[in-house]
Amino acid sequence: MKVVPDTSAIIDGRVTTTVKDSSDKIEIIVHEAVISELEAQANMGKETGMSGLEEIKNLGKLHEKKVLKVLFKGERPSYDQVKLAGSGEIDAMVRELALQEEAVLLTSDIVQAEIALAKGVEVEYLPPEAKGDVKWISDYFEEDVMSVHLRVGTRPRAKRGTPGNLSIDVIDDRISKESELRQVAHEIIERTKRASDGFIELDSGGATVVQLRDMRIVIARPPFSDGFEITAARPVARIPLEEYHLADHIKERITEKKRGVMLAGAPGAGKSTLAQAVAEYLLKENYVVKTMEKPRDLQVPEEITQYTDLDGSLENTADVLLLVRPDYTVFDEVRKTPDFKVFADMRLAGVGMVGVTHANRGIDALQRMIGRVELGMVPQVMDTIVFVDAGEVAKVYDITFTVKVPAGMQEQDLARPVIEVKDFESGVTEYEVYSYGEQVVVMPVKETSDSVQEPLWEMAARHVEDDISRYVKGRVECEVDSSDSITVYVQDHQIPVLLGSGGKRIKEIEKDLGVHIDVRSLDEKREASSLRTIDAHLENDKIVLFIGPWDSKESVDIYVEKEYVTTATVGSDGTIKMRKNTQAGRDLIDAVRKNRKIQID
Question: What is the tens place of the pLDDT at every residue in 560-589?
């Protein structure tokens, strides 16, 4: 009896068990194309390739024991034929060999079996089977189970509950073995290939991602992971938009006109569940709705087509969607820079966009957009942020654009383009986003001006100090006098350098920073400050300054009779120790020997 197994039968691992149980003398004929396909899959780190090569090895052992005869026939396929294996090129070569040899075609691929029968080839089809007492992964999914986690060497666990109320429990006392997980993984792949509502999203380099009905399953294996692991997740609830807090506000935003809405929240917060609810609501409102997902795991009505990346690129997907002309596109999820650019491109093309992104706070969703989209374009791309926490809508932000003086500044000549982030319920501005020098500032807006000015002015002083240090040498100190005036202190001999010829340089700096700058001497500042005189003595190769334990770990400025020397940090014992061979150490030793005052500020 001659048997020609195809790739699926060998990967399935049941060729050996099927032929061993036969009372006939069996001759196994393996097409070289099958070996090539398995080799290509194994080289890419695919589980299917490794499983298939293991079965070939088992057949070789049976051949050596003379249990059966194994032959390899046919021509090795070309590179292009191996690339076209997914479209049936290798399967066609195997069918042709079975026909020529008048052999039985052994397959676990239902499509291959049906085509072979139609062409007059004798076929033995191997349907999926449960192996031993290994559980099929769906058996673990009880009503409240959100995800199942199987890993070699550990007990199966499940995450139960709903967003905001989750627990992880052991659901089986048996330790998972690698052989069992490989069986489960193989069955997942086979069921996915046969299911009309299943597809393989990714199979490369030790990772396989599939969508099977409402389950998203990730299979990870070495070298990608340090152990064989299977994780399956599914939505535990489908909540209509009407049941969400602030649902009326969300409806108002997305139906008033086409919007750029970003649904933000931490992992597991319920973003995708809300995205599904928004998609269903838009469909009921007679909008044409599509989705962009990688992987595709949103549970949406049949009327909504779900798109994934085209030829490995979501930019290609966007090109197709613009030809389809949807009213709204749900983008799950927006995470990398190309994702934000695709989101922005489609939004600026006039498509209503609902994005899903990870963020710990609502404002973080806006900050993720900054730098990836030109600042002035942000409100046109994303005008609404919906923050989800523990399955509930916690906040809705309205993003607007205006020209004004930022909060904490007073002079009108400091007016600039400002993005205002307002609470949609109250209309109160909670954040302002604007350019300050070369930086983009995301500034919380407090109720009192003092609470705004203090952090803003501190930041402004640091920014000016950094900028001035580009022009002068030595120490630079800044004090913010008001929203439009800063006093800069530098060493005496550096004042002319900073001012420049005829004050030209300082005027250019003022124009660039948008503030008035008053340049003064550091000595003048020290005259007005209260310097504290300290004791010091020499100790071996160091000079020790006695500051006091109350200043422990504080940074202090050190002077010799009001002349700045250096800045140092006080030790835990209340002293500062400096080596004699440093410039500051030599200056301080000279002061001790000449009985000059050593002071700190």
Answer: 877 778 888 888 778 888 888 888 888 888
Cα distance between residue 358 and residue 271, in whole Å: 9
**What local confidence, expressed as pLDDT, does residue 289 receive?**
92
The predicted model gives 248-258 an average pLDDT of 81
pLDDT in tens, 427-447: 888 898 888 777 788 888 864
378 SS3 class: helix
Q: Which of 207, 205, 204 is nearest to 217 (CA)?
A: 207
Q: Alpha carbon 111 to chain centroid distance? A: 38
Amino acid symbol at 330 = V
Q: What is the pLDDT averaged over residues 137-142?
A: 80
Of 304, 389, 373, 292, the closest CA to residue 333 belongs to 292
Q: What is the pLDDT of residues 193-232, one digit of tens each?
A: 766 677 787 777 788 888 887 788 899 988 788 889 999 9
Say which residues have a Cβ less than 8 Å from residue 113's Cβ, sequence separation at least 6: 105, 107, 123, 125
Secondary structure class of 166 (helix, strand, coil) = strand
pTM for the whole structure: 0.54
Task: Single out the residue of 268, 261, 269, 267 nearest to residue 389, CA to CA.
Answer: 269
List of domains in the chain: 2-125 (3.40.50.1010), 137-233 (3.30.450), 257-444 (3.40.50.300), 451-526 (3.30.300.20), 529-600 (no CATH)
**Helix locations, 200-336, DSSP H:** 247-256, 271-284, 314-324
What's the DSSP call for residue 77? P
State the amino acid at position 206 in one-letter form. G
